[in-house]
Input
Amino acid sequence: MSQYNNVYICIDKINKEMTLQQLEYIIAVDQHGYFVNAAEACGVTQSTLSLMIKKLEEELDVKIFNRDTHPVTVTEMGRKVIDEAKMAVYHTKQLLELTRTAKEQASGLLSIALTTTVAPVIMPGLFHYMRTKHSAIQLRVEEMISATIIDKVKKAEIDMGILTYPVNDPDLLEIPLYHEHFFAYVSPKDDLYKEDSIERTQMSKYKVWTMKDGVRLFDRSQVRSEEEIKYDKLYEGGRVGILIQITDENGGITIVPESHLHLLPETVKDRIRPIVNPEPQRTIGMVFRKDYVHERMMNIVIKAIKTLVPSEFLDGVIRVDYLRL
Output
């Protein structure tokens, strides 16, 4: 319930169909004194303006204008309604301007979380990109596991997360950024080192090192078939480089995302083997809250990441120059 000059209006009684446009119409009539002039100023026909004002009067159950006078005059209650309407229109425009400014903002703190298999690929270049192209943005980046990223984004503790797509959380918006394949890293101590490629359907027969809930060999009893293996989950919470060292020392294989291949020393690149029939792959995407308003900041991060990954990773993902929230 709101008060204005000792007059109380119960908001619950106002029909939900009342619009900002109707408020602008009665303000225009008050300013111009004639319905025809007000309609022209608002860019609508006189009949449309008159009808919308009549509906508003019915919804509020008050008479706003005396139509028998020329120019029209405002009733006592109508004056109070118009004064309130002016305030409502003003605050709405302020809200729209605030939102527009926030969308166009390219300065201030920007907090991003990345999964541990994405961070080594994106983080160094992202800092350089922001420092050289958008120095007014204060970038803060953290590494987290996917579940923690999702939780912190939903709680608005971070602005956005970069992780395996899709998340399929109804509370979040998500955008695919790039695709990549998985490769096998084979220890020279293993017989597989002699092979040119590894059949995906045969993976469950091999000793595969993973890092989920600690370093361990992949537990084949958890899946019924090779198709059920989620490759991006084989090292949730750990770095690929650690698994490579363990594989070198203990034999077997581990899984390496395609984006990590250029990070490997030249001396070990001969240990990489493609996984075939079919080739496993993943999509990396961005997640953020549905009420996130910093549209330009989001687009800056998207553009930065798309300049940091090979162009072939972008096949099949959004390539527009600017995304609107």
The chain has three domains: 2-104, 108-178+284-314, 180-281.
